[in-house]
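Our example copied in:
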Amino acid sequence: MCPGVVAFAGSGPGDPDLLTLKVLKALREADVILFDRLVSAEIMALAHDGAILEDVGKEGFGPSMAQEDICARLVHHAQRGRKVLRLKSGDPTIFGRLDEELTACEAAGVDAQILPGITAASAAVAAIGQSLTQRGRNSSVRFLTGHDMKGFADHDWAQLARSGEVAAVYMGKKSARFVQGRLLMHGADRDMAVTVVENASRADQRVLTTTLETLPADLAAAAFAGPALTFLGLAPRVAVAAAHDKIQMELA
């Protein structure tokens, strides 16, 4: 039997309308779909009825399928001649463990392709009516992870603490106090604007507007349960923020 193929695809932030046409086509044609925990139910409903669906989701500091087991499942199905869709939330090239899975396919002689998707930062910044870069403010933007394989992730805090810098922190809920502490240690303004967008692009999207000084307390009070993207150095544009559900935390 000829070997199958694996497509690594980004399902975007959750709204099915934000799927690319290529990913939608792959959903409708795949024999097997290995999907992440954050892929929305509305998107999974677009798979054809005969597809084999396997939940291989991971959760930071929570229950997860071992990476080697995910790689083994990809190779197993592809070597049986199946069209395999590895469906990740957002874009597969951003904090998606893509390299490990591509390497497993290469080692097994399995053909693979990458289908990009809209990443959470793009959806979240659109929700608050802002842009990730602005002339005269910041000529670069950083995509950071709140934690890595060793725990809370370290970054160039001195650079991030400078006025005008903008960063998007993925998986940053549990690391909020750590990020706050590192930035303050390196001279960041306590009034630095911080915005947290939960469930970006989805019907239950919520936006928290806060500052670096009150970030951990406000985030704890908001009790976000869904995936959240944290912007350092950005506040919602007032006219656009008024059109979205928003959590406003009042200081005691």
Q: What stands out?
A: Residues 22 and 115 are 7 Å apart (CA to CA). The first helix runs from residue 21 to 29.
